[in-house]
Amino acid sequence: MSFSNEVKKEICRRPAGARHCLLAESAAIMMNAGRIDRAGGVCLEMETDQYLAAERFRYLIEEAFGYRLQIAVRSHHQGNRKKYLLRVQNTDEALRILQALKLENEEGSLYEQDLPVNEVLLMSACCRRAFLAGMFLCCGTMSTPEKNYHLEFVCSGPERAGQLASVMSFFELGPRIVQRKNNHIVYIKEGRQVADMLNVMQATVSLLEYENIRIKREIRGNINRKVNCEAANISKTVAAALDQIQDIELIRDTVGLASLSSELYETAMMRLQYTDITLRELGAMMNPPVGKSGMNHRFHKLKQMADEIRANKEE
């Protein structure tokens, strides 16, 4: 099972809170998967391919209204995907639920109408948390943290996407909105933001697992960066040493190393003997020891001599 589904399973295991929070979460699910039919009375339907969302909606309606729903299963030919349907056919019960969810007037598919949840249901922080949890159940997904950090919601239009982004901003989650085909995507893609989102939705177990994976991934990344940096430094040291050795060998084979001053002679001989150590290490072996800048200065003089010899050869 994907990490995203594990988060949804944990959200569904959350116990019932205050009734106003149940209504906020129910409204989020209803707005994404609900339909109102007023032909011959009032019928309330909720249809989704997310079984967890259907099961959670049944639980919320029973806790908030004492009304027991049954989940019916429909099979669709496209990819053999199943649809889960819950229906409130009793007009009085449907009206009671719609009135509590502030949906008295709308008809047809609520998803297609791009209706936001009534702001009255989102007055408190706990209700906003419940709203985000309900939205994630219906239209949210997140990447496995071993691969990358990304959590997104697929919204039907700009109204619902804007409301969702506003609620996420209340918790300082830094959401962004982008249009993808006919949908509006609200997303976050930083590790810290995704962790905060799991905390907001009260998916504590998933949060701990996510943070554990994130820490391991970042430690591994730091180690790889240090190894790569060390390898690059070694490559630079070896390349510089090879250039220095070429200069020294040219001087030796033309004017001879005996023509050098005692300091440069000692430097040249040490480099020929120790071909793969750094300037700092090479300077520490001098008598007396020489710092890195001092060694740089000496090799600069040797290079100048070698360049003069090359220039004279060309003439």
Question: Please, could you describe this protein's structure?
Answer:
The structure is a single chain. The chain is α+β, with helices and mostly antiparallel strands and 315 residues long. 57% of the residues lie in helices and 13% in strands. It is built from 11 helices and 9 strands. The chain has a 5-stranded antiparallel beta sheet. Helix 2 (19-33) crosses helix 3 (51-65) and helix 2 runs parallel beside helix 5. The chain is rod-shaped and about 110 Å long. The mean pLDDT is 87.
Strand order of the largest sheet: 3-4-2-1-5
Count the helices. How many?
Answer: 11
> Helicity, in percent?
55-70%
Q: What fraction strand?
A: 5-15%
Q: What's the gyration radius in Å?
A: 35 Å
- Pairing-aware structural class of the strands and helices? alpha+beta
Span of the ends, CA to CA = 75 Å
Low-pLDDT stretches: none
Give a quick precis of the structure.
The chain has helices spanning 3-12, 19-33, 51-65, 91-100, 125-139, 158-170, 191-200, 204-254, 262-273, 279-284, 292-314, and strands spanning 34-37, 43-48, 72-75, 82-88, 108-109, 140-142, 151-155, 176-180, 183-188. With 315 residues, the chain is of the alpha+beta class.
List key phrases describing it.
single chain, 315 residues, alpha+beta, five-stranded antiparallel β-sheet, 11 helices, 9 strands, 57% helix
Write the layout of secondary structure elements.
Elements: H1 3-12, H2 19-33, E1 34-37, E2 43-48, H3 51-65, E3 72-75, E4 82-88, H4 91-100, E5 108-109, H5 125-139, E6 140-142, E7 151-155, H6 158-170, E8 176-180, E9 183-188, H7 191-200, H8 204-254, H9 262-273, H10 279-284, H11 292-314
Antiparallel strand pairs: 1-2, 1-5, 2-4, 3-4, 6-7, 7-9, 8-9
